[in-house]
Amino acid sequence: MTWVSGYSIKFQQCTATHDYYGGYFNGNNNNNNNNNNRAGYNGIYEQRLVHFKLCPTDSCSSCENGADYVVDMATFVNAYTESKLSVQEYNCER
Question: How far, in Å, CA of 70 to CA of 16, rounded?
Answer without folding.
Answer: 11
